[in-house]
Amino acid sequence: MTVQAHAAFQSRPALETAQSVVALEPGAGEHVWFLDHLVTVKLRGAAAPWGVIEVALPAGARTPFHRHEDDDETLIVLEGDLTIFLEGGSTVRGRAGSCVHLPRGIAHGFRTETPLRMLVVCRPDGFVEFTRDYGVPAPRPEYPPNVPPDFPRLEALSQKHHIELLGPLPEGAL
């Protein structure tokens, strides 16, 4: 079988760029235990156009209700189901194949209904760095041990990364 390039691509010179191609195998990346999440950092840093993390969570996992001052977040659900709680009392249900964009400044939090795996896309120096700062390197790519959060440290790092913690999920999120 012969493959021929489209004519528009045959005469184009190679692009010269200081950036490198990043290609990671499934499961590859920097593994971090963050709260009850297993975070795999896929893309980060000043040279990256955005940050990408893969997040795995058990059923029943919850985030605090919070607001990112500087970061838009896009959640792409790969496996499982979650309910996203938004300021004003509305909810959004995400399931495998869903994409939910949360603009900066919108208060939100979520609860997983089943074990979940999703991609989170944000600024390369924003939420990705928050997960790395609060989390610990994961010695194995599995859920972290069940330990209570260090709330004073979580609050301090949230402030550093311009994330406002607003408390638990709204009533009815149980």
Describe it for me?
- The chain is built from three helices and twelve strands; from the N terminus they run H-E-E-E-E-E-E-E-E-E-E-H-E-H-E.
- By secondary structure, the chain is mostly beta strands.
- The protein has one domain: Jelly Rolls, CATH 2.60.120.10.
- Strands 8-5-10-3-2-1-11 form a seven-stranded antiparallel beta sheet, with helices on one face. It has a three-stranded antiparallel beta sheet with strand order 7-6-9, with no helix packed on it. Strands 4-12 form a two-stranded antiparallel sheet.
Order of helices and strands: HEEEEEEEEEEHEHE
CATH level-3 fold name: Jelly Rolls
Shape: globular
Strand order of the largest sheet: 8-5-10-3-2-1-11
**Proportion of residues in helical segments:** 10-25%
Query: Distance N terminus to C terminus?
Result: 57 Å
DSSP strand count: 12
Tell me, rounded to a whole number, the average pLDDT: 88
Number of helices: 3
From the alpha-carbon coordinates, what is the Rg to the nearest angstrom? 18 Å
Which labels suit this protein?
7-stranded antiparallel beta sheet; mainly beta; 174 residues; 3-stranded antiparallel beta sheet; 13% helix; globular; Jelly Rolls; 3 helices
Summarize the SSE layout with pairings.
Layout: H1 7-10, E1 30-34, E2 37-43, E3 51-57, E4 65-68, E5 73-79, E6 81-86, E7 91-95, E8 99-102, E9 108-112, E10 116-122, H2 127-134, E11 136-137, H3 151-160, E12 163-167
Antiparallel strand pairs: 1-2, 1-11, 2-3, 3-10, 4-12, 5-8, 5-10, 6-7, 6-9
